[in-house]
Fold this sequence. Notes:
By secondary structure, the chain is mainly beta. It is built from one helix and seven strands.
Amino acid sequence: MANYKPITKSILASAADSGQVIIAKLSTTSWGLLLLRGTAVFSNTILRSGAVAIWESTNPTTAEPDLVTFTDANATYGITTRAGVALRLRFYSK
Length: 94
């Protein structure tokens, strides 16, 4: 793995906060997994100790999420997911 270099794709908070689908094409070459890392923010407020639900589809759904993780005291989260699938994220806070 000496030649492995992660590809970074940033999504601006203003774009993510709009509720619109954001398309990000990332080449994973032979890698089948993606490390998703972010900060949960809503209306300029960070969502500390909140939940992040992730669906591997952009279709509206009431089904259980495929993945769930939590934000820390700084509202950052990270989770490994499959590459090559559309993701829908929802943030929950108390």
